[in-house]
Amino acid sequence: MLLRERAALNFAEREIEEEVVAPLGIRVVGKAEWENRFPYSARGGVVAHEIGYGKTVVSLALIDYMRAWDTKESIAEREAKVDGAWSQELPRPFEHLGNMGSASLAAGTEKANSFFIHLSATLIIVPKHISQQWAAEAEKFLGLTRPKVLVITTLNAFYGTSMEELKKAEIIIVSGGIFTRPFLDRLHGVTRQVTESTPATLPGRAREAWYREALRHHRILTAYYLAGIAAGIPEKDLVAALNERGLPGLIRKQQADIDALLAKQVQEIDRQLYKKGPKSKAAVAGSSRSAENEDATDNEDAAEQETAMKGKGKGKAKVTAKNKGTSKDKEDTDDLSRGKSQWTPTCLHNCSYARIIWDEYTYDGGDLIHLFVSNAVANAKWLLSGTPELFTLQHVCRVAAAFGIHLARPEPRMMPGLPPIMTGPALDPMSKSEEFHVFSSRVKSPSLAMERHEHAHSFVAAFFRGNALDAEIDIPVEEHVIPLDMTTLTAAHYHMVNQELLDAGYDFTILPSHARTIVDLKGTDLLNREGPEVAKMLLGLLGSGLGQVEASMDAMNENLARRVNVLGDQMKLLWDKTMWLWRWILALMAGNREYKATEPVANSLTRVKALCDSLTEAMSDSGNLEEFGGKEMFDHEAAIIAGVRGAQSTDMTIESLREAWGERFKANWADCYNENKALFTWFDFFSIEASNYDHLTDTQTRLLAEDMCWLRYKISPHASPLTDGLPSPDFLGNGNASPNSSITGRGIPPTIEELVERDKRVLDGMSSKELREWVQQCMEQQPKTAQEWDQIKKNFPFKVEDKKPLKAALIERLTELNLKFSSAATVQQLKEILCAHEHGRSVCENYRDGRAPPDRYRDFELTTAWGEPAAKQIDATNEELKRTMVHLAKTIEDLRATMLEAKFAPEYAALARSENKDAFLRKKRCCSCFRPLSHASSSFLVVACGHLLCRECKVISGFYCPVEHCPAFVRKRPVLQCSQIPTSVAEPLPKAESIAYFIKNNIPADEYVLVFAQYRQLISALAKAFDQYQLSYVNLAGTKDNMVAKKLEEFKVGKAGQILLLDMDSETSAGSNLTNATHIIFASPYVHPDPEHQTRTVSQARGRCIRTGQERKVNVYHFMMRGTVEEETLRKYAEKCKPVKEWFDKDGGGLPWWMT
Ligand SMILES: [Zn+2]
Ligand SMILES: [Zn+2]
């Protein structure tokens, strides 16, 4: 480090560009090389080590050693080189200062000679939660306290620390928490107004350009200031003059320069790239008064950005006027700095430093810090990090940029087929010229990419150096793997959900809702993870005992049976609806001889016919049952469709079914559905209103009344017949509201016809007038008409908690509900989607799994209202028919899966509960070959269907379960070896409690523990379990940001409990030294799609207490649910961790089924 501090490291930069000249068929490569050297700072380097290297201490030692140099040579060098390089920037002689300028000129200061307040201090930027830690270590090792050490944690202190204090300080610690949006907003006052909102919204490069302009003004003003003070001008007057005249002058000058520059080029650019329509042209041509601030700010790169800026700002006054008219971002109306100058003499922007140390540069939220560090002036820069990110060109480029080194022009997009190491930074959004570039050059040759990569390598070689201190970290560590078993119930659910996930291709979003919601996942959990990652999260949490499973095996079986019933009813509903819609189309067509069926309509009709024909055929003696999922499934489905209840009962033979059902599926199956009044008839098809009610004939009124009776029985489980004469107006009551409550447990009585017959007799007894009144009363309960619906949508209330932005909250909610939406949708559109769902108006297409709640209204009345032309009605009806068929198919799939699960669960439970599995199995036979089973290790249970297989039959099974007629798909699906099913005589504790129990019983109360957990649910379960076991702990994951530092400090000194609970996915503990703890618990193996990230995060976590300064042995515990996705993850980790691998080799047991 010392060496690098004194001699600048020159770095040859290379710019490489490639273009294919298509007409000539040649590839042109352009190359430019130049030296990059101090003062644009290529001094310093990266100090990075996996863990515990003691970077803080080494850095402090460096500061200590360099103390004398920092106060003399360092400053002298900066004065000579930096100020020298900057002096040409200075407008002279102080032209923007008017009299004041002349005054200082008169005083003999012809030219300002310094642009910075050159400090001898080291500036250290740290994550906000360890700013106190740095201060404490500076005191501990160097004995430095205030005023030698300054800790700056607010933006006001950043701007307002006095010159005297700055000069006294040896170390200035700046909290990374300062570098947020207000940091940029504050600079808004010293530069042109480039956007109507804030520079935070500028795309990356334009923002950097803008930032540099702001710094430039800062530094020129500092030069004026220093010269003015030297000339003896009173400070107050001087600052006032700088703000009143100096700064506005600079801004005007800058604007004028840009205008002049663009005046030459803009027409060309405008024609080629900037075709934004006449408005922007007008702006460019000078009549900017009419120019609108069109949203061109999104996509330009720096140069073009300026074009856009120019259109917007001809001098400040106009800009302000325009701001008024185009407040696209309403939230940004705060006039913080607009039109007001904000320059103050003491501000860290105005200073230069002996060195800048950026600790934990990989810590998140570093974008603005990066901007600050790369543009700040210092003799040397150091980047510190445990567990550095350095795996792609992207990371290297980022690090290089902090040293002011432009490493390679990163590719916005690489063509496929190149080596993966070439990952370029995602420049989002792509600039116009990049888009053009990508568009125009089709070839990106690997050689070019490799050349760039080599350049990055040379940077790494120069700036990163292997350190010799590796061996110093010799802290004894003992690793333990602690396997846990799931409870029988959890395990049964786990296997079933896993099966469903496999069927869904590991896509969480297309899981049926019962599987999706078995663990309470919120939108926030889902949004920042990909489908497969969510699937792993779901399985991990379910396995850890955090699923909402039933209290007992019996309850689970009951639940499954109920789900079979519910799905059966749903299927019946959909089937009837399909038939009714089909008939309705035919009826409409019959009434319109001229109508020619369109293709979709014809298709639907054919499909319905084909389905019914094959059912008819299946009913015949030789019928093929395969497409109905085998005999068993067919029996069930057929029984449901036939309206015969008790379909699960085994006494119903295919013969009896054929008898009961044959009626309907003979030659004219179509007619058999005649009497099945439509479920949705009344709601959807007859938009009868008060205005046309009088037109109804008596017969029509009577038919409507009958329909309503039908509807009621189908929708409501509790509907009772009309025995008491005139029904009350709330007759439909639970029939048309709260669909969820009505579908569960509803059984369609086989006597529904009888019930309606009874009702009909009541209706017979009513006078025509009574009947009319009654129908009218019911009519008033009809769902809202279209007009009212618009009102509902408009006024749909949606409450947001936690002050979250409305759109984000809506997106989270829609994600939870599995609703589809476009990311470009407006808040109003998102609201409407949610509103439609809540009012039961969403159709299958609106859901990501294609499953709408089945028994809700359909948003379809308008086009089918009577009075519309037949063709329109037919098309609308057909749309509904198609949806219904899709929904029906999905329902049948769900039903099938659930029926099979209902077989697996009890079989699994019986096995898990038998203490002697061999004995238990010897009483059983292989379901396929019927030979008796012998040992648990040679017997298998198929999760998909609950069939037991011997080894031979398991081996020969291909895609399907080998048992005859079994429709279960088994290829790459779980088939459990019976000996691997844990015996659970006493049910194990869920994971969180197991961990709490473990700590309570195995770790002395005076030893400190770090518990790392992933996922919100597990963290809160752990917190709860710690409470339950009366363990004292700090939940850092549940601690507000501004309290993190305090809590950490409390924990370190033993004032905050024995346990520190941390979230693996958040880096809130990065950099903190927690060597007081000697136990590390990983509540679950850490899951992340990027293996590098995964490894790094785990080392980062371990490094909190396995690091320099640790004097005792550290115990690391890996908790894992055996036989789940966690085992898979931990086995992968074992490849990098020898003791864990040894554990698996010795005690780990066989590989789980899917890893063999
Ligand atoms: Zn067998
Ligand atoms: Zn089977």
Tally the helices. 46
Gyration radius (Cα, Å) is 37 Å
Instruction: Describe the global form.
Output: globular
Share of residues in helices:
40-55%
Largest sheet: 7 strands, parallel
Structural class: alpha/beta
The proportion of residues in beta strands is 5-15%
Mean pLDDT: 72
Structural account:
- Residues 293-304 have a biased composition (Acidic residues).
- InterPro entries: Helicase_C-like, P-loop_NTPase, SNF2/RAD54-like_C, SNF2_N, SNF2_RAD54_helicase_TF, Znf_RING.
- Residues 326-338 have a biased composition (Basic and acidic residues).
- Keywords: ATP-binding, Hydrolase, Metal-binding, Nucleotide-binding, Zinc, Zinc-finger.
- The chain is 48% helix and 9% strand.
- The strands form 4 sheets. Strands 3, 4, 5, 6, 7, 8 and 9 form a 7-stranded parallel beta sheet that branches. Strands 10-18-17-14-16-15 form a 6-stranded parallel beta sheet, with helices on both faces. Strands 12-11-13 form a 3-stranded antiparallel beta sheet.
- Helix 11 (235-272) packs across helix 13 (302-312), helix 16 (393-402) packs across helix 18 and helix 35 packs parallel to helix 36.
- The two termini are 50 Å apart.
- Residues 942, 945, 947, 961, 963, 966, 968 line the site of one zinc ion (ZN).
SSE inventory with pairings:
Blueprint: H1 2-6, E1 11-21, E2 26-36, E3 44-49, H2 55-65, H3 67-71, H4 73-86, H5 98-106, E4 117-118, E5 122-126, H6 131-142, E6 149-152, H7 155-160, H8 163-168, E7 171-175, H9 181-187, H10 204-230, H11 235-272, H12 278-285, H13 302-312, H14 316-325, E8 351-358, H15 367-375, E9 378-386, H16 393-402, H17 432-440, H18 446-463, E10 477-484, H19 488-503, H20 513-516, H21 523-527, H22 531-546, H23 553-590, H24 599-619, H25 630-641, H26 654-662, H27 681-685, H28 690-693, H29 698-715, H30 733-736, H31 739-743, H32 752-764, H33 768-779, H34 786-794, H35 806-816, H36 827-838, H37 861-864, H38 870-913, H39 917-922, E11 939-942, E12 948-950, H40 951-956, E13 975-977, H41 991-1002, E14 1008-1013, H42 1016-1028, E15 1033-1035, H43 1041-1052, E16 1059-1063, E17 1077-1082, H44 1091-1102, E18 1114-1121, H45 1125-1134, H46 1138-1147
Parallel strand pairs: 3-9, 4-8, 5-7, 5-8, 6-7, 8-9, 10-18, 14-16, 14-17, 15-16, 17-18
Antiparallel strand pairs: 1-2, 11-12, 11-13
The structure holds zinc ion (2 copies).
One zinc ion (ZN) binds at residues 942, 945, 947, 961, 963, 966, 968.
